[in-house]
Amino acid sequence: MGRMTPTTELTETTETTETTVPRVGVTPRGPLSEALIAVLGSIPSDVRDVGSLVDLAGQSVDAISSILRDDDIQLALFVLYSLHYGSLPGISDRWEWHPVLIEARAVLERAFEAELRAAVPVPQLPTPTRTSVARALVELTTADAGPSLSRYIAKKATVDEAREFLIQRSIYTLREADPHSWAIPRLTGRSKAALVEIQSDEYGGGRPTRMHSTIFADTMRSMKLETGYAHYLDSVPAITLASMNTMSLFGLNRRLRGAIVGHLAAFEMTSSIPNLMYGNGFRRLGYDRGVTAYFDEHVAADAVHEQIAANDLAGALAEDEPALMPDILFGASTCLFVDGCAAAHILESWESGASSLRSTTAA
Prior knowledge:
This protein is mainly α. It has two domains: 31-119, no CATH class; 130-351, Up-down Bundle (Heme Oxygenase, Chain A), CATH 1.20.910.10. Helix content is 61%, strand content 0%. Helix 12 (257-269) crosses helix 14 (289-320) and helix 12 (257-269) crosses helix 15. The protein is globular and about 50 Å long. The chain starts with 30 loop residues before the first helix and ends in a 12-residue tail after the last helix.
């Protein structure tokens, strides 16, 4: 399918007009993100043709060997996804469904998904039943031999490293649960009910102060860190953005609903024990419940969530839609793979005496 080039400027559909050019507070990391940020810093009704972004996206994909670790492409994807979350200030809501931005995103998504499918090892598919799927997910998540960032935090991390850890996690956790929530309208019946049950806890069961994103913000505040979403965006590396972008890729594409369900299942099934160790690590450093409450909350909550996710979410979806079985396992395996790469980056940096951040000036 050829590139679509808009022939007319965006049509104003409401009486509200924008007259002030906003400033997008994101530092580009290459030609693609620079061009994208320049476009998004414009007033939509003033832009007549942004079609060159599609060509630039294709050129950027062709020019690099690993999308997973490319700062320019991962930042561009993150910014494009932010149009749907409303995460970044200075960007008009009218950009969200601009057809050329969607097409540019699709170019990056196709390449990103293809790289993940080629790189991520997926185990043999089980029979599509609740019991078999749950068993396969248990085997997959318990066999994971990735680097143990939680063990390092528990036993060795310094205060500066603990702060870095929170900065790295803030890219997802200040929006905790949102990427997986895209799956709610894409599911039906048992799997939908199971997902809503998990997400209800993530969002505090109707109590804003108990939302996990809010509790994490309290932890950051107690560590004297900024809590504005994406405040530390310029400091985190591509692999951290890739972790969030993977969830957005799966969640925002209905055809990948099996993958987002598998991702959440693996995410929940590898959360309880690590969070216990994270909490112990912060206690070792002398911090009280003002800092550890977030991790303590997940020890109990995710022990319950992992059973719901394995059986009632992933297992039920496999029974109801057996054709999604490959993607359920792919999503779970991708969660372990990408988050393992992110953990490895952090540990390798610390063990060599370096910061895991691109810049420590924001910390």
